[in-house]
User: What shape does this take?
Amino acid sequence: MTAQPVTAQPVQAIHVQGLEKSYKKLRALRGVDFDVARGSIFALLGSNGAGKTTVVKILSTLLKADAGTATVNGFDVAAQPADVRESISLTGQFAAVDEILTGRENLVLVARLRHLKEAGQIAADLLARFQLTDAAGRRVSTYSGGMRRRLDIAMSLIGNAPVIFLDEPTTGLDPQSRVEVWNSVRQLAGQGSTVLLTTQNLDEAEQLADRVAILHQGRIIANGTLAELKQLFPPAKVSYVEKQPSLEDIFLAITGTDRTDSADGTDS
Assistant: This one.
């Protein structure tokens, strides 16, 4: 009996070409093109109103494009929306957690709503993965901002979606909480997930992304690795440079937090 050929997954987890979207007279997207390699972190960097959230909404089938094509995990977002939704998880700009429930109860609830077996074990695994086991039995109302965000991301992963959209995941967080979320995002990519991250934070894009696309007034004006983007601007010639610490460096040093640490995040 002849073996059937196995259809290989596309190299690109996300493919976007010529994407356009208008809201009445406002042209939010004006022909957006980019690709996201499978298993990578891709940052869509831009200011408020650049079109970042519009791109995410189209790719997650929450909004229809006026023109252009897009595929996620090999599925066309317009023609195969159900398959796309099965392939993704989406975390918005604000944590969608129930503060009355404990961390464990939030995760178990989502697992049961998705009709998954062994909801308790799924919750336990995610709590461990996001360093929340010690706080699992506490109400989420007692969590710090970073802990809530990590729990929110953990909730969005129930079902093991291969493609993850994080729309400005560190909005409103203090530096320590932001580092906690960054560590969680690195873990996701390290375990094989593809992450599309939207952000206004240049440091966030620099810290996390394998590739960065700069979205400005509805268009991608630059796209590449950090090294490739730096080549667009030759270094300035100076005879002596004394590096001053940033305010974030000072804050993290004083509070005893390192960028690679995973603090318990409890508020006082």
